[in-house]
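STRUCTURE:
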């Protein structure tokens, strides 16, 4: 039976890095980062673009779930509200897979350090810090397996998730 991993977390917590690691460590795996479905300049958040990104995400994930080449489907995105996860799950054909919903967590100090390092390297803009820190407490309300990333390597986190 296929496995579908939905990995949420605030910006800078390590979702993409973890997804890429899981793609390498799990057999017959495919990875989708939700940000790839909404990579535009200028970035615009409107009702139309929000509907579009959900359609893009669910279309690609369903294609992966229906493709016999893949055994493990890994998806990461911020997903800071239960309603987002429910919307995605409501559009997916998960009849032939186990769904594992995971939220990556970090302390404010660790998250601040990661984001500021990304800003210094030119990977993120400074405004991401405040938005990311504001999202951290929202994950307490999400029905997911919580995984603390503080002081752990990506490999250690991936191994924990693969044991779920």
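SEQUENCE:
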């Amino acid at each position: 039976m296929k496995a579908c991993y939905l990995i949420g977390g605030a910006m800078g917590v390590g979702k993409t890095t973890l997804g890429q690691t899981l793609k390498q460590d799990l057999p017959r795996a495919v990875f989708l980062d939700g940000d790839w479905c909404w990579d535009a300049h200028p970035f615009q958040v409107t009702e139309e673009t929000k509907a579009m990104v959900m359609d893009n995400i669910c279309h690609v994930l369903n294609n992966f779930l229906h493709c016999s080449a893949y055994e493990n489907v890994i998806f990461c995105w911020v997903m800071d509200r239960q309603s987002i996860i429910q919307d995605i799950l409501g559009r997916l054909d998960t009849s032939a897979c186990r769904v594992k919903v995971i939220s990556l967590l970090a302390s404010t100090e660790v998250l601040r350090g990661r984001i500021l390092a990304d800003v210094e390297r030119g990977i993120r803009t400074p405004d991401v810090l405040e938005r990311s820190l504001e999202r951290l407490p929202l994950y307490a309300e999400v029905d997911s397996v919580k995984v603390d990333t503080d002081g752990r390597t990506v490999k250690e986190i991936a191994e924990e998730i693969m044991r779920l």
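REMARK: The chain has a mean pLDDT of 97.
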